[in-house]
Specification:
The protein has five helices and two strands. It is α+β, with helices and mostly antiparallel strands and about 100 residues long. Helix 1 packs across helix 5, helix 3 crosses helix 4 and helix 4 crosses helix 5. It comes from Mola mola.
Amino acid sequence: MLSPEKEALIGRVFQTYLTEHHHEDILQLIADTNDETHHPVFVNAMTLFEASMEVGDYFNAYPSDVLDIFEKVLQRRAMELSENERKMRHILHARITGELVNWK
């Protein structure tokens, strides 16, 4: 079980990662007029865990809990970037991968 402090750390690290590596991706997904409402954001594990090996350790020990935190942070970030919360009809999902993926 992750403590609230560990959850907060994971959330901060992932928020920073999203800002540095996926800001434009999130904006494009928000603006997407496609009827599909669920969209993946492919997260490169190596890049993310280089920023914090501790988060990598937590991911290995508690993958479901850490993915839940990633999902919440990603959705919150998308809502923050959306000009109008009512317009935000997409649900974004973090997909952890070992390679760079171009989702376009």
